[in-house]
Amino acid sequence: MSSVESGTAWENAAEDRARLDRVGTAEKLAEILRDRVVEGYFPPGSRLSEEVICSLLNVSRNTVREAFRLLCHERLAVHEFARGVFVRELSDEDISDVYRLRRMLECAAVREFPAAPQETLRPIEEAINRGAAAALANDWRSVGTADLHFHQGIIRIVQSPRLDEFIQRVLAELRLAFAVMPNLRSFHEPYLERNRTIWRLLSEDKAELAEMELVEYLKDGEREVLQMWHESQAQA
Amino acid sequence: MSSVESGTAWENAAEDRARLDRVGTAEKLAEILRDRVVEGYFPPGSRLSEEVICSLLNVSRNTVREAFRLLCHERLAVHEFARGVFVRELSDEDISDVYRLRRMLECAAVREFPAAPQETLRPIEEAINRGAAAALANDWRSVGTADLHFHQGIIRIVQSPRLDEFIQRVLAELRLAFAVMPNLRSFHEPYLERNRTIWRLLSEDKAELAEMELVEYLKDGEREVLQMWHESQAQA
DNA sequence: GCATATTTGTCCGTATGTATA
DNA sequence: CTATACATACGGACAAATATG
Q: How far is CA A108 from the centre of its chain?
């Protein structure tokens, strides 16, 4: 197993990588279900039936149950003993908690902007551009996705793998609220320009202005999400 | 389903709680394994054998596998496809990431101290006292636990359930490093007094001094953990 | 309240795939 | 390359809890 004679310790990095992301059926299934849930295909509160899923996708019940555990662990679903697994229904407190965290973490990330290495900045710009392109194509769900990518990019300035994963999970929860919204356009459209503004302020080294704008942005977002959430709840 | 005629929506809170607490074998098993792992009973890198665990605890392989998924999701174990599940081995980058997050999050929490409600402060004092009591009893692992509770208490000032859970998981990872340390006393003892100092500064509304002290504390902690970690690695 | 059907919880056996000596 | 050991995944079985009429 010695690699000394033939190169560096990472000459087989590709193989190592391949080994790392080799993954079982449960994880793949969890990924499928996660996508369906955050896209609103399974509405919040709806039941994820073991039998339906394992017959539709031709996997065994054990595998389905392993995937369910992962989704519950990510708060995208809730498990009630002997009753089943259900798509998570967010409460007002959940939404407020998510926005409280976003304000806290994104502001902390912005404060570290001056020390941000170049490669962390490109994804942020790309997210802005993807949002604009999706808006032109009238694809407002993709605009929402790009918006979340923009904010994930902000967080990535910190360069903490754990924080990246955390914010990704938290924003995935938020998509449970987006998923039941009508009028995605009226919600997302104003933020296209506001993202650009924040980015411009950051690029011009006006970090404090950017932080203030970001806080306002997130306060407005919280208010709007809560309001639209209440409206959609009132309908049902 | 109406509860209007007979009282509040929470007249059956005890029942609700009982339903929530009802939990399957996999979660209970995960809790057992989690405790064992963070206490160092299973050393980092050691293998968690499906067969051994399911024969020792009389549970089925399926149940064990469900519990394993949860531990892997919490980063306390790693899953290598078709090879098995192993207790996580932290790298230098992991330890640095944990401390980077602690500095970021605990400082942010301290900044919100003036708005902290009274009930979030009591657990912090209690953790300090538990640490002192454990030191008197020469129980240095409990001192370490109390120290982590102190810092969890700081974070709880923010009153974010998600952040609380996040920091709990991150600190659980850190215990993987503590678990292999000899000389727990020389590591933990100095921090008993430093925790008290931070707490005193906070109580006296000297938030900025407290924050500075906290940053120093965490920088020292990171340095010491990395050093002791290297020493224990060198032995092996 | 009761009886029934449905669904979950848990365990087991087995065939296949993968890694390692 | 072979053999062994183990993980992966499936499917069946039955008990326990729940939902339905």
A: 19
In this structure, are B187 and B117 located in the same domain?
yes
Using a 7 Å cut-off to protein CB atoms, list the covered nucleotides of chain C. 7-13, 17-20
Residue ending a domain, among B64, B87, B110, is B87
At B184 the three-state DSSP class reads helix
Residue nearest to nucleotide D6 (CA to C1'): B83
Q: What is the Cα–Cα distance from A173 to A44, expressed in whole angstroms?
A: 11
Search chain A and give the residue with CA nearest B159.
Answer: A97
Question: Which pair of structure tokens corresponds to residue B148?
Answer: 């982590």
Rounded Cα distance between A67 and A70, Å, is 5
CA A99 to chain centre: 13
Domain span at A224: 92-235
Domain final residue, candidates B63, B87, B111: B87
The tens-digit pLDDT sequence of chain A (236 residues) is: 344 444 455 455 555 555 556 899 999 999 999 999 999 999 999 999 999 999 999 999 999 999 999 999 999 999 999 999 999 999 999 999 999 999 999 999 999 999 999 999 999 999 999 999 999 999 999 999 999 999 999 999 999 999 999 999 999 999 999 988 888 999 999 999 999 999 999 999 999 999 999 999 999 999 999 999 888 877 76
A189 contacts chain B (CB < 8 A): no
B185-210 pLDDT, tens per residue? 999 999 999 999 999 999 999 999 99
Q: How far is the CA of A82 from the C1' of D13 (A)?
A: 18
Domain shared by A48 and A144, yes or no: no
Interface test with B, best of A15, A66, A69 (most B CBs within 10 A): A69
For residue B48, count CB atoms less than 10 angstroms from its CB and return exposed for 0-12, middle for 13-18, buried for 19 or more.
buried
The whole-angstrom separation of Cα B68 and Cα B145 is 24
Tell me the pTM. 0.92
- Indicate the number of domains in chain A: 2
Same domain (yes/no): A117, A209? yes
Per the structure, the residue whose CA is closest to nucleotide C9 at C1' is A82
Do B152 and B212 fall into the same domain? yes
Give me the residues of A, 138-177, that contact B with CB < 8 A: 158, 160-163, 166, 170
Pairs of CB atoms within 8 A across A/B:
60
Q: Among chain A residues 10 through 49, which have CB within 7 angstroms of nucleic chain D?
A: 24-26
| CATH code assigned at A70 | 1.10.10.10
Instruction: Output the domain CATH number for residue B178.
Output: 1.20.120.530
